[in-house]
Design brief:
Number of domains: 2
Strand order of the largest sheet: 1-2
Number of helices: 9
Shape: globular
Order of helices and strands: HHHEEHHHHHH
Helix content: 55-70%
CATH class of the largest domain: Mainly Alpha
Largest sheet: 2 strands, antiparallel
Strand content: under 5%
Length: 236
């Protein structure tokens, strides 16, 4: 087993595990080495390995089994979609396609979150909204964008549907870069963002699917509208 490159380490770990499955080195039901040994074999740090394992757990590819450890749960090729290159805000077509994908995926996970969220899920989402408000008040856009991303991730988690979580995880990395850039180049987007998130949270908390889904769609439509205006102004 060759040590992997130190570029996008978590993604590289995922690709290496995928290669091991495709080559037959790992198969469904096999136990992975303990994290210290596995990280050393791959030539990565334990935090990078944990990040990769967390992603694989979210999409149902692996699971932690008490008394056994981490095992390969599913080798379904659908769980191993090729990574897409993150679109820059400067790439109009890619960015608008990402927005379209978000509209369908996030409206779906929000509807399921209203139905399936536990009290703990709702508490976590509410805490994130409070932290987002604080980051905005303190003029910390980088912290806000990080919390924004985690807010959407926790809604996906609250859907308690591993296939919907998988779809979200697939585009999460793309969303992170886009969100950071969009807040910089589109004035006013950051300020409007918090209100949408507060209303989405209230809808989930009150088990009001119409409110939660409507505000999620409106939030994404607002981003799309602001982005379209940005591109139009650049053409003038």
């Amino acid at each position: 087993m060759a040590a992997i490159k130190r570029q996008k380490l978590a993604d590289s770990v995922i690709e290496e595990i995928k290669r091991m499955i495709n080559s037959g080195e790992l198969k469904e039901g096999d136990k992975l080495p303990n994290q210290n040994d596995f990280a050393a074999q791959l030539g990565v740090s334990r935090p990078s390995l944990r990040e990769a394992l967390h992603t694989l757990s979210l999409i149902g590819a692996i699971e932690q089994r008490p008394g056994l450890g981490t095992v390969i749960r599913d080798v379904n090729p659908a769980l191993w979609m090729e990574q897409l290159s993150p679109p820059l805000v400067s790439d109009a077509q890619a960015s608008l396609e990402l927005i379209e994908a978000r509209r369908f995926i996030e409206a779906g996970v929000t509807e399921l979150a209203v139905k399936n969220a536990t009290a703990e899920n709702i508490q976590i989402i509410g805490k994130l909204v409070g932290e987002m408000a604080h980051a905005l008040q303190e003029s910390q856009p980088r912290d806000y964008s990080r919390l924004d991303m985690e807010f959407h991730h926790q809604i996906a988690q609250a859907s308690h549907n591993r296939y919907m979580v998988h779809m979200f995880v697939t585009i999460r990395g793309l969303m992170e870069q886009f969100i950071r850039e969009a807040f910089i180049v589109i004035p006013g987007l950051l300020d409007r963002s918090l209100k949408y998130h507060q209303n989405i949270y209230q809808g989930i908390k009150e088990r009001d699917a119409q409110q939660a889904v409507s505000y999620m769609k409106n939030h994404i439509n607002d981003i799309q509208g602001a982005l379209s205006k940005h591109y139009q102004s650049e053409r003038v």
